[in-house]
Amino acid sequence: LSAACSRCLDIPGAQEASQMAFEALSAGNKGLAAGVLMRKARCALLLGNTGQAAADYRNAAVRADNLRDRCESYSSYLLSLAYREIASADLLLEHQKYAEIFSQIKFYPVEKNRKRQKKLHIGYLSPDFRQHVMFSFYYALLACYDHEVFQVTCYSLTDVEDGYTEALRELVDDWQSLSLQENSYESIAAKIHADRIDILVDLAGHSAGSGLPILAWRPALVQM
């Protein structure tokens, strides 16, 4: 019902239905309840209730029963704080708590004696290699680098492609389609590590579909 209301642009109705669903699920399936909270939070954000949105996203992160949902809900929580009046020290603290999600992950050890490659191998990680606002920011990075000095690999984290995608694919040395719908964070990290990336650059931060958690495994020597 909430999804149907959203499609009809009845956001108050969608929020009310989400609240009813959450109340019905709160004592049951934690994972499903987390998904409902994410929908409820999105409705609150669209209605300008940023405090409720932040609280619901945070609650969803606590209830999430898998790494993917926990990362996505906590990232949404951090992003929602941009709409709130919050002290810098408190904002820093909430971002530092993000690291707790990855406390059990065993990252790749630094290869101190790794043989230097002929070209500096740079990897760009994004769910938005398509017609998207981020295109204006990363286009020059892909179109204007010196192919004699750098080797560039793009890791696309979505199956959504368009003419922009095709144009970008022609600009770089290597293109890897690794949709997050079909691949885990860990498996993508393993692929990046095997590709011997020197510098890995995440282009999405805490926005939708981000691969930021992949950096927790530290698959590259330098990460940005």
Helix content: 40-55%
Indicate the overall shape: globular
The helix-strand sequence is HHHHHHEHEHEHEE
Question: What structural category arises from helix and sheet content?
Answer: alpha/beta
Alpha carbon gyration radius? 20 Å
Descriptive overview:
- The protein contains 9 helices and 5 strands.
- The protein has a 5-stranded parallel β-sheet with strand order 3-2-1-4-5, with no helix packed on it.
- The protein is α/β, with parallel strands linked by helices and 224 residues long.
- Helix 2 packs antiparallel against helix 3.
- The radius of gyration is 20 Å and the shape is globular.
- 30% of the residues are buried.
What is the compact description of this entry?
The chain is an alpha/beta fold and 224 residues long. The chain is built from nine helices and five strands; from the N terminus they run H-H-H-H-H-H-E-H-E-H-E-H-E-E. Helices cover 45% and strands 11% of the residues.
